[in-house]
Protein 1
Amino acid sequence: MKSFERITFDPTIMGGMACIRGMRITVSVVLSLVASGMNSKEIIEDYPDLEEEDIKECLRYASMLAKERQIALV
């Protein structure tokens, strides 16, 4: 599995959800903003602690998760 340097998991921050660099900004928030049509510049204007590479890593993380296989147990 690829390592992600900017995505962190800490049970004391946002209940252990995937966050950006230990901040209280979750990967799901960033992905929702991208999905709603915002570009990186707009997202960074709204969340100035974010960097362009944070957004790119969120997309890489989502891509990795989408490649996961689900096997139905019969």
Note: Residues 7-66 form a domain with the Arc Repressor Mutant, subunit A fold (CATH 1.10.10.10).
Protein 2
Amino acid sequence: MGSEKSYADWIAIDWGTSNLRAWAMRGNKAVADAGSDKGMGSLEPAAFEGALLEVIEPWLGAGRMPVVACGMVGARQGWVEAPYATVPCQPVSLNVVRPKVTDARLDVAILPGLCQTSPADVMRGEETQIAGYLAEVPDFDGVLCMPGTHTKWVQISAGEVVSFRTYMTGELFALISVQSVLRHSVDDAWDGDAFQTAVRDGMADPQALAGRFFSLRAESLLAAPGPGVARARLSGLLIGSELAAAKPYWLGQRITLLGAGRLAGLYADALAAEGAMIDTADVTSATLRGLHAAYQLLKEAP
């Protein structure tokens, strides 16, 4: 790794609430990556520039380095607020915000998120992943499911985000499994059959969710179910109720799962059980393609 000017053409940044991820880029190829745990949630506005330099300093030369950033860095509590673009719209545009910097080597552009007024909804970071997916599949017309702490269902048509809905399913699972009475019943094992049964229960009877949750606790006291049953059923009930609510987005639609890891696999299993036809795409690759698409827009702008 060197600090010469030619090492990187530009730098891609995905700056979330908990972590900062950075890539040194030559064109559309990452030649190095780095990161830190200094996410938006742990920084005051004046500390962002220093946190960025800690990670990318080895890639800087003497001249100004274009840095394109997405995610919570542009939130109201972030480095500087990047106002939302309102759907329907293209996922990335030239409406970036440039924070004031003291290091003359930095030329930072922060991408805006997207918002929807009715029903009210917002996203930051996912719009860049969407742009990256569309860069690879420009004729896509359908729905992206983006599993995460706050899962997004996104309707795409003619290269634009038409509408989207966010579900706090992942955060609810974390809160209930760690902070509620169910923490005494949920272990670290997993039962796939129990998950699929619970998905069907959650879809068929979402209004009974609160009662079914307490039954998980009661069953662990009275019937001693096997390892992983309570955890799998809690997850299945939550995802099943989400699928019931999000049915207008996925029923009969072309669906791509844009995610990674175990959670994306659970959504794939749950949707496949309902007969949905699903493609998958890697979220990290999509993020880099989306940041590159934004970099190209900015580079070519008059």
Note: Residues 1-124 form a domain with the Nucleotidyltransferase; domain 5 fold (CATH 3.30.420.300).
Protein 3
Amino acid sequence: MRSLNLHLKILITLLVGLGILITAYQIFILGIPLTEDETDDLWNIDARVEFQASPREPVKLQMFVPPLHQDYVSLNESFISNNYGVSINRADGNRKVTWSARRASGKQTLYYRLVLTKRYSGEQTKAKGPIFRDSIPVEGAEKIAADALLAPIRQHSADVETFISETIKRVNNVNDDNIKLLLGGDASTPNKANAIELLLSIAHVPMERVHTVRLTADAPQSPELWLRSFNGEKWLYFSPETGQQGLPSDRLIWWIGDDNLVSLEGGKQAQVSFSLSNSEMNAIRLAKLTDENTDADFLEYSLYGLPLQTQQTFMIMVMIPIGVLVILILRNLGGLQTLGTFTPVLIALAFRETQLGFGIILFTVITALGLSLRSYLEHLKLQMLPRLSVVLTFVVVLIAVISLFSHKLGLERGLSVALFPMVILTMTIERLSITWEERGGGHAFKVAIGTLVAATLAHLLMSIPELSYFVFTFPAVLMIMVGFMLAMGRYRGYRLTELFRFKAFLKD
């Protein structure tokens, strides 16, 4: 017995622990939304390219577009132009679109449109990058100024991260004569980035320029320059103006490197303006769209990977254990008497179609009339099988009559009575009649009321949309419920009704 108890405890612990771990993985790692009403941001980005085309010359315009291989995923990408060929190339971690035309004249306008959202899958590829670089050649006064700046930077830094932060801090001190010399009177952000790169290269610290777009629906904007360096494990991002470390969550990397956003052949005065708009979409629908547009399969192997019609069936099926759990608690802890465990649950499922109030009336009427017929057939001394056949036929006729009269009276809800499981009603009538014979009409009435109460409570719980969504989306919670059911199987204590039943005995 002791080994059996240990075996049961281990089984319960495994089931509950595994259910919690799988559910936590879906919520915190895969980022699947907890509620169906939860929404996520959807960003629409328009890049408008304008330029003057040179007459009688072929036009070739190239522009960087987001690589979208990290935190964001593209749901739709379109290139809008008139009589231009479009191609996309990849190089050095970037993507570049090329618009080309044999002839064009006058002012030209091209559009790049991107619809994106945050990537749902938390699984990221391992970062890779250089950890060493050669020094940029520098001589004369610039060499002396760079060495004078690097000495205190080395003294005040402990690793690559603090070295870069201290370098950016020094370069932004424009009152320093050494910085003035390196900047040459130009304190613009790109020139500061050149000075930072020079100092870092002498220390053999690699650095890359990262051009980002801010995901905000404010006024039109231009790409913002950030710097990054690889420390052997991950990329470290820095603002060349403020020294702020860590790329903000609202930044989208557009391209990496020293090249300009746009290069143009056969034209001049190329300009790019960005405009962004934000909208919201149902989170789980967005997760499915994300799953379809990437190589991720975190929803593919869930119930959402089934055909839509099958999903609707399973949406009901996964709620049956919830109803069973209600009956288990009502019987084992409450002491409520019902016609078995599954009969109330099946009646509760029928209430989904007929609605609760109308379903209770139909259940009461059909059961009462069926019991009357069963009592009459008992006097004919029929065997059980013929008796059940007659009751089943009577139930079918009764359902047809109720549906017909309901339709004539304009009560379309009465037509749903045909969805009641006829076999369940027949067996319910048969079992109630046997209970009546064996233990009396009072006990049979009590069991019928208990069955109806249990079915009503199970139906109310199984009809909660939030609960239905949660169990369907995170089916591992059923393992936790199984663990609870196993624990309930060893309960030998008093039931609630027994406390009232033995109340007088306890007083003595």
Note: The chain is about 50% helix and 20% strand.
